[in-house]
Specification:
The chain is α/β, with parallel strands linked by helices. Helices cover 44% and strands 13% of the residues. The protein has helices at residues 21-28, 33-51, 55-67, 76-81, 100-105, 108-113, 125-130, 132-135, 140-148, 167-174, 182-186, 221-224, 226-237; strands at residues 5-9, 153-159, 191-195, 198-206, 209-214. Belongs to the peptidase S10 family.
């Protein structure tokens, strides 16, 4: 199968340019001035560790601020907001039905359909532990290489309500891309994208590249807005413009 392009949804592509959670959360009203200052200070510490290639230290600061996956305690974000869901700032907790798929995928019929035999299902936590040294490394140069080849299509999309990969942070990364259409992208008009009369989101497009913001969706765009996500990814895989 020949590579034709790639789509990245709410991806931490370039951590060094995507650390300014303080201003974002402050503007949402989730942080006060003290919280914003702390987030910004810790963000600068993440940048310092990344610049020094101290990847594990950078991840620990990031994890302590937002996720709390590996620190054995609640994250700073949880402690100051009371919210455990950093995938959607409108929700306090992760919806229960977000995890129903695990039971579905372990059904004997499904297991047979996806040819996994008797392999044990894992939730990915062990994998995350082994990837700690990789999470804070940038893939921006790889994306630029793909774009400069001028032979592949790239789609980067965000849910409007995501916290951990907030849309303004993705903008920071995208606006720093260096390829033949980067100046055109920076000056591109953002268009309203409608699906069946509804405003589904907003789109910037240049040759071989599209950026989409999905309205009323968090980190899990296909879960929050399955119809719009399907329309978007179908047009992309068919080689069509989103609009």
């Amino acid at each position: 199968m020949n590579l034709k392009g790639m789509a990245i949804g709410d991806g931490l592509c370039d951590p060094i340019s995507m650390t300014d959670y303080g201003d974002f959360l402050y503007q949402l009203g989730l942080l006060d001035q003290q919280g914003r200052t702390y987030f910004k200070e810790q963000g600068q510490l993440v940048i310092k560790y990344i610049q020094n290639k101290e990847w594990a230290k950078a991840f620990k600061v990031f994890d302590t601020l937002l996720n709390g996956d590996t620190i054995g305690s609640k994250s700073y974000f949880y402690n100051v907001t009371g919210l455990s869901n950093y995938y959607n700032f409108l929700l306090q907790e992760e919806p229960k039905d977000l995890n129903y798929w695990e039971k579905y995928i372990n059904d004997p019929k499904r297991r047979k359909e996806i040819h996994v035999g008797n392999l044990t299902f894992h939730d990915g936590k062990k994998v995350e532990a082994y990837l700690i040294e990789d999470v804070m490394k940038s893939v921006k140069p790889w994306i630029e290489e793909i774009l400069k080849a001028n032979n592949y299509k790239v789609l980067i999309y965000n849910g409007q309500l995501d916290i951990i990969i907030a849309s303004p942070l993705t903008d920071n990364f995208i606006n720093g891309l260096d390829f033949q259409y980067s100046d055109l992208l920076k000056n591109a008009t953002r268009h309203i994208w409608r699906v069946d009369g509804e405003v589904a989101g907003y789109v910037r497009e240049v040759p071989n590249f599209a950026q989409v913001l999905i309205r009323d969706a968090g980190h899990m765009v296909p879960y929050d807005q399955p119809k719009w996500a399907y329309k978007m990814i179908t047009r992309f895989t068919l080689g069509k413009r989103i609009i």
